[in-house]
Amino acid sequence: MLKVACIVDDDVSAFELAVAGEVFGYDRTDRGVPRHDFRVVTQTPGPVRVAGGLGLPMMVEHGLDFADEADLLILTPYAQCEYDGECSLAVSRVLQRAVDRGARVLALCSGAFVAAKAGILDGRRATTHWRHIDGLAAQFPHIALERDALWVDDGPVTTSAGTAAAIDASLHVVRQLHGAQAAAVIARSMVVPPLRDGGQSQFAVGPVAEQRAETLAPLIDWMVAHLDEEHTVASLARRANLSERTFARRFREELGTTPAAWLTSQRVQRAQALLEATDLGLDVVAQQAGFGTAALLRHHFTRQLRVSPSAYRRRFAVPETAAAAQPSALQPGGM
Question: What is the model's pTM?
Fold first, then answer.
């Protein structure tokens, strides 16, 4: 069994702690998922406060000795290590030793501050919750922060954006450790999509983008349903009954990007879903996703996700039984 240590301290975030336990601590060996030796650890074993207004103390039995043996160390957000808070020197040293010996580290949400203060993010790409990313950037200018990513994987360290993105990053690590089948089984049991790629934006992607759209919401719904058609600013402005200049300005205000960039992102997501859940050829995937040709699909797909469509399919294709349980993945906004 792989050893997984989830490091906590006072005012630990209940959600990210629960995600770590659900993904890595729950026994799914009856469904073919390898079991982990999962333990919650802290510097001084004993009661730890749980944040979020729950008023619940949690008894932590294990110290950092187990973290020094772990194959994966998970950093949950906890208040005293955010912004100007002090992180335990003992935790920092455990993390440094972990990276040196080839273990993996998964920092969830503002758990990135713990990793950053240990120095294991220096010179690496990373992300965190959009509310905290300016503070992280100000304190640690040597980290290459990706502000819109759901999660970022750089070497032995994976970091995630806020809250629900902890699920996405955790499933990504499962795929890396045990393969797409194991991740699909866990995702199915958690009733979440098997994959939202880290390159997706924290804001203008799928359902989030549709919620941000205000006056343009009906047009956004129509665009998602017609990704396989050709669109221009002029044609979209006419459909929205706006001048081209007003339409372009309002689109950026409401969705945070240009119509062309938004369409490309949505089309890449549609291609991801098709590559994961079908065996359609690249030409057909390109047509259904709105790229027209396989060459154009390869260009945009590789540019956004840093992997070719064929390599992506080999790595993340979901078995037919798992795909059948995820019908929303092929619907507009389902990613």
Answer: 0.64
